[in-house]
Amino acid sequence: MKRANLPLNALRVFDAAERHLSFARAADELAVTPAAVGQQIRALEDVLGVLPFVGGRPSGQPIDVLTGFLAGDKAMGRAVGVQIAGDGSLLVADDVGGVVWRVNPG
């Protein structure tokens, strides 16, 4: 399985933009400019190979991007929640394993 290094700051910015449905409001929350939000979203688009936003607005319906942990054909877990922690790490709740995984930046 190919593993991409996700830019966690870009994920934090994406989370804010998705919640507010606006680059400007996300920028206000994060104390940055709307242009900086756009740059982070473009960095995430480059890594993911998809365009979650077009013209600063969501480009479609939400889709699952983290649906499980696979070992061959067997699911070893199921991600049911994702959150950006205060330190920038990504927290993933796994209801099969009953754990929360922390993905640290760097």
Structure commentary:
- The chain is an alpha+beta fold and about 110 residues long.
- The strands form three sheets. The protein has a three-stranded antiparallel beta sheet, with helices on one face. The protein has a two-stranded antiparallel sheet with strand order 1-2.
- The protein is built from three helices and seven strands; from the N terminus they run H-H-H-E-E-E-E-E-E-E.
- The chain has two domains: about 50 residues, no CATH class; about 35 residues, no CATH class.
- It is globular and about 40 Å long.
**Overall average pLDDT:** 75
Sheet with most strands: strand arrangement: 5-6-7
**How many distinct helices?**
3
* Strand/helix succession: HHHEEEEEEE
What helical percentage do the residues reach?
25-40%
Rg estimate, integer Å: 15 Å
Count the beta strands: 7
Distance between the termini: 20 Å
- Note the beta-strand portion: 25-35%
Instruction: Identify low-pLDDT runs.
Output: none
Based on Cα principal axes, name the global outline.
Answer: globular
Number of domains: 2
Question: What profile does the largest beta sheet have?
Answer: 3 strands, antiparallel
Structural class by helix and strand composition: alpha+beta
